[in-house]
Amino acid sequence: MRNRSQIHRCEPDRTGSDGICSDGTESDDTGSDSRGTDELEKQTLTTQQIKVGVQLQQQGSSIDAILEAARTFDSVGVDSIWVWDHFFPIIGDPNAGSFEAYSLLAAIATQTNRATLGVLVTGIAYRNANLLADMARTIDHLSGGRFVLGLGSGWFQRDYDDYGYEFGTAGDRLRHLEREIGTIKDRLSLLEPPAIGPMPILIGGSGPKVTLRITAEHADAWNSFGPADGFARLSGILDDWCAKVGRNPSEIERTVTLSVDEVARWQDFVDVGATHLIVMVPHPFDSEKVVDLVSQVSSR
Prior knowledge:
Layout: H1 37-46, E1 51-57, H2 63-76, E2 80-83, H3 101-111, E3 116-119, E4 122-123, H4 129-142, E5 147-152, H5 157-163, H6 170-190, E6 201-204, H7 211-218, E7 221-225, H8 228-245, E8 253-258, H9 266-271, E9 276-282, H10 288-298
Parallel strand pairs: 1-2, 1-9, 2-3, 3-5, 4-5, 5-6, 6-7, 7-8, 8-9
Helix pairs in contact: 2-3, 3-4, 4-6, 7-8
């Protein structure tokens, strides 16, 4: 994952789903500090740079409003800008308008300069995996190498039914996700010109048996939701999976998606290992709480 500093580090499994682990080292002076392990871990987290992102929820809005919001958030210093991957509203008025994620993100790429960009998270069944790799590579070029490939197994049945995709079972969708990650990686290795950025893979989800194993094996970042104690439990399970598959857990960035109402409790999530706080912002994309969060985080 491309970071401005060294850090530890969608949607829950209903989406198929945005902190980093410890660096994996041990003190040479084991046991010499009288403070407890929890206190030492918390002190380590306070020295890490925390990132702030926004998910612009593109239902019930307009292209002009979404692009203006993207420019605003980019200018105030957020680290990442995301959209979601739903063809219909998932909250509020079910008949409100919406926009397709990747076409929208391509436009956002040309209107922003510094924030990383991604879909939180992509429904893996909605696009042919080879084509998805090419779309991701193209947006990476449009953004100057700022693209993050967020993936999930999908969960919103209306998207599937109305667009003619097979919904299947949760197991079917997870197997599809795992299979297509390999297809995407293979296609990316063949594309010319190749991506110009690192294009990290983020996997969103909270399933402890399958999703977190896939994350441990394939992802550069993981995204889930609160509350903080639930996030901490799942992050610990991800660490366990990393140990089982021979992966250093510090290689996987821990991101968490927060509602506007949860922003005031952001420190609770940082205390349990999240280093990338992604705030869900619906139309009309009020920036006040995000700007305040950016200020609080930068002054730590």
